[in-house]
Write a structure and sequence with these properties.
Helix content is about 5%, strand content about 50%. By secondary structure, it is mainly beta. β2 (about 20) and β3 (about 25-30) form a beta hairpin.
Length: about 90
């Protein structure tokens, strides 16, 4: 993902926000915006308040935020299945 894939994108003041990772490392957030995620099922998810940081090489999801929005998440081996209202939304390999 790069900033050109955002539907809307706003730069934030340099070094005003960080993403902290499990390995005690961090990445400087360069901007925030809305990202349109087209799923293989033909559905589209609009993700709001998505953080953009160059140093992060993989897309990260904040599981607690998804749960608070009503998603149901299943971790199976190295896959994550995400449902909304008992409708399968996406399968993620990690």
């Amino acid at each position: 993902m790069d900033q050109t894939t955002f539907m809307e994108f706003h730069r934030i003041p340099k070094e005003s926000r960080y993403i902290y990772m499990r390995n005690n490392n961090f990445a400087v957030v360069l901007g925030i915006g809305t990202y349109k995620l087209d799923l293989r099922s033909g559905r589209t998810l609009y993700l709001h308040n998505v953080l953009y940081a160059l140093k992060v090489q993989r897309n990260l999801m904040y599981v607690l935020a998804l749960l608070q929005l009503g998603f149901y998440i299943m971790f199976i081996g190295c896959y994550v299945k995400i449902y909304m209202d008992n409708i399968f939304m996406v399968l993620v390999l990690y």
